[in-house]
Amino acid sequence: MKSKPKTQLAPLSWMELCAYWMLSFGSHLYSFYQLHRFCREHDAVLQREFQLEKGLLKGFKRDPSDFEWSFWTEWAKKSLLLTFIGHGLISRLTSIFFHKLRVPAITIYGLLAAGSVLGIKGVGVLLVHLGLSFSVAHMRKPLLSWACNLLLLSTLHIKPLQEIQKGWYETEEEYYLLLFSVAVCGLRFISFSLEHCWCPLDRGGVVQFCWLFSYTFYHPFFYNGPIITYKDYVEQMRRSAEANADQSALWYLVLRSGRIVLWWCIAEYMIHVMYMHSIQSNETYLEILPPWALGGLALALVQFFFVKYLVLFGLPSTLATLDNLSPPNLPRCVSIMYSFTGMWRHFDEGLYRWLIRYLYVPLGGSRHGYLYKMFSTGLTFGFVCLWHGGHDYLQYWALMNWAGVLIENGLKSLLTSSYIRSLVEQNISVVMERRCIALLSAFSTAMLILSNLVFLGGIHVGRIFWNRVFVQGWSTLAPPMLAFLYCFAQIGLEWSSHPP
Questions:
Q1: 54 - beta bridge partners?
Q2: Dist CA 263 CA 256 (whole Å)
Q3: What is the pLDDT of residues 105-139, one digit of tens each?
Q4: C-alpha–C-alpha distance, residues 384 and 451, integer Å
Q5: 290-315 pLDDT, tens digit each
Q6: Measured between alpha carbons, how far is 362 from 316 in angstroms, rounded to an integer?
Q7: Which of these is catalytic: 42, 99, 138, 388?
Q8: What percent of the chain has pLDDT over 90?
Q9: What is the 3-state secondary structure (H, E, C) of 42-109?
Q10: Is 61 helix (H, G, I), strand (E, B) or coil?
Q11: Which terminus, N or C, of the chain has the lesser number of Cβ atoms within 10 Å?
């Protein structure tokens, strides 16, 4: 999982690249069209079975089955958009008129905003977790801090405690907001604890507690991320406290807001014209989908996940940038992801950096041989699985990703060995070498999409796709699918070699 220097790939002719672009783009559009046709043909049955909502577009229904999108959309309407706007106004006004009070002001605002939604008891849970993590961190024992924070995260899965916390709220959605907040804040507490254990700060305990408080209740990142480390947050906030207000902030806000609105429109359009989340929950529909519509379903699910997180991470990242922070890059398009390693590195960059810094490298990483690498990668994926809930489908997903990363790294080590390199250089042109890499990447992309389908839809979705494509359709569906994935991989390789 550790970054390595990039090797320059051989350039392809513009005609070949254009062919890959046309085939990639055309296959997306045609498969989406076939899925849309299937949805229109079964519209009445799907509406009756899955209670599709009245659509925003005339003549279309809306598929509300994606829990995460529906959940955050409703909360945005209720309060989150208003509290985000409030954060932006307070941060901007204090940076102009009361520069030294900006960090305390947005911290207090974040606490009040959290309290207005989670209530006193919900915020009390977070304060208890914060206090325990802070106290244990001062013992400067990394293993003890890990044990403390893992125990605190495990309280999310204690049934009696869940029932008590649900009783604090009128709706289950309010409880879920507490659940998400505790889970994300748990990563922040681990970050603070380990940074303090490794490099105790020279400031007093009260100052450290105030910074941890600010880091925890920073409103744009509070509920859902993206994740930045405690070290980065403090360093960037201190630098921003010395910087003057940027006069171009308004133009940046307008442009970024326009992009976020566009992404939101694309996501909504997708669930109006393709009911992919309802279809994936029914095995009968998965079995009867025509081949092109089946491919369209797989692409629609992963593309919607990508666009969804452009929105969910886009608005908080915009506010953080206006606060002179450097949030992680937004997710990269999944259609140009051609490896498990690249998916982890570029989809949720903040979580990737967190995992590298606090788990993978301390466990040994790649510094002590392949066995240590297997062990470090395995425990890292195990933690990700547990943090997401530890359900059975997540265990399969984590195992598939672990195996995918290890196989990719093993093949990379083999193909870059001096003996293999000399054979390749003597017998294969650099352009043909790139085509071979893209062909291998097509197989990796197929498994990557399969693992994402397990993550997004469950074990049954992955099983049906595996059976229909690789078992029943090994001679009819798999070859053309791999051909199109080869085109996707070539586009991804070109994008990685010449990023915009």
A1: 61
A2: 11
A3: 999 999 999 999 999 999 999 999 999 999 999 88
A4: 14
A5: 999 999 999 999 999 999 999 999 99
A6: 29
A7: 388
A8: 56
A9: CHHHHHHHHCCEECCCCCCEECCCCHHHHHHHHHHHHHHHHHHHHHHHHHHHHHHHCHHHHHHHHHHH
A10: strand
A11: C
CA-based angle 148:151:153, to the nearest 5?
A: 110
Let me know if 388 is a catalytic residue: yes
Q: What is the pLDDT of residues 361-374, one digit of tens each?
A: 888 877 777 788 88
SS3 367: coil
Burial label for 422, CB within 10 Å (0-12, 13-18, 19+), is exposed
Contact 225, 316 (CB under 8 A): yes
* 128 Cβ neighbours under 8 A, 6+ residues apart: none
Other C-beta atoms closer than 10 Å to the C-beta of 158 total 11
Where do runs of H (alpha helix) occur along 138-167? 142-154, 159-166
CA dihedral of 329, 334, 339, 342, whole degrees rounded to 10:
0
The C-alpha atoms of residue 189 and residue 182 are separated, in whole angstroms, by 10
Please name the residues in contact with 108: beta carbons below 8 A apart, sequence gap of 6 or more.
none
- Amino acid letter for position 272: H
| CA distances to 18, 117, 264 from 120, in Å | 58, 9, 32
Residue 13 is predicted with a pLDDT of 87
**Rounded to whole angstroms, how far apart are CA atoms 445 and 334?**
10
Give the CA angle between residues 449, 450, 451 to the nearest 5°. 90
CA atoms of 4 and 17, how far apart (whole Å) = 26
Q: Which amino acid is at 160?
A: P
8 A C-beta contact, residue 111 and residue 148 = no
Instruction: Using DSSP bridges, classify how beta strands 53-54 and 61-62 pair: parallel, antiparallel or unpaired.
Output: antiparallel
Return d(Cα 495, Cα 416) in angstroms, integer. Answer: 22
Q: CA nearest 226: which of 184, 175, 180?
A: 184
Comparing C-alpha atoms, which of 69, 42, 79, 31 is closest to residue 456? 69
Residue pointed to by tokens 């910087």: 243
Q: Closest Cα to residue 98, out of 108, 90, 107?
A: 90
CA atoms within 13 A of residue 248's CA, in its CB half-sphere: 5
Q: Of all residues in the chain, what percent carry a pLDDT higher than 70?
A: 96
* 310 close to 461: Cβ distance less than 8 angstroms: no
